[in-house]
Amino acid sequence: MSIGMILLVIVAILIFMGLAERVLDRLRLSDKAAIAIIIAIVLSTIFIPNIAITENVSFNVGGFLIPMGLVIYLFIKVETGKERFRAIVAAVIAGAAIYLTQRYVLPAEPEAMQIDPNYVYPLIGGIIAYLFGRSRRAAFIAGILGVVLADVIQLVLNNINNIPAPTRFGGAGGVDTTVMAGIIAVLIAEIIGETRERLQGGTSKKNMHYEKGHFVSTLGKANKEDKKKNENKNKNKNFKRDIDDRGDQDEK
């Protein structure tokens, strides 16, 4: 089993144990949706072959189609234009960095490396995705999209230079690169973000909870409940007072 698949299994276990609820809330995902996505990626990677678009271009369902669908969903869920802009900028920078690393830094022969380049790319993409994306959601989007953009850059240059090299989006180890880039980006964002929040005395959403696709104020909810309790309490007092007044009238 590849490292990417192992990471997905670990994430699934953390979700079942309830240890990933905070991260999933930030990503606007429920436990069931996250598990369904993980299962879909694993099964499609194992059982569905690459789908050819042209002779030299193909994509993998688990390594490209599903992650890109998740990216689109998260991008729609982003609540501010500033965060969308950061996600796009981070993705472009991450994609360029991955391509330049592949083209000019790493040796031409992967066998000459002591580590698989498919594990180097997500590390680079994940770090850059957080540095420029900042939020968990933007980092995740940029991490996955950065890997895809690196392949797009290579495809465009191949066409310009008439190089008949195949481009497999999410295939040939790409599923590991894509999955790991997203997970690494979110992991870095969570560790650094959680540390900063603790140093600052808490998170800005400490009085909020995630409900039906959005953060809802827990404080407001609590205030409404307290208000309702006070109203019921006042009603009971008034009812008791009415009974006592009637009793006094009867005695007279």
TrEMBL record:
Pfam families: DUF1614. It comes from the Bacteria. The chain crosses the membrane at residues 6-24, 33-53, 59-76, 88-106, 118-133, 140-157, 169-189. Residues 222-246 have a biased composition (Basic and acidic residues). Keywords: Membrane, Transmembrane, Transmembrane helix. Residues 215-252 are annotated as: Disordered. This is DUF1614 domain-containing protein. It comes from Alkaliphilus metalliredigens (strain QYMF).
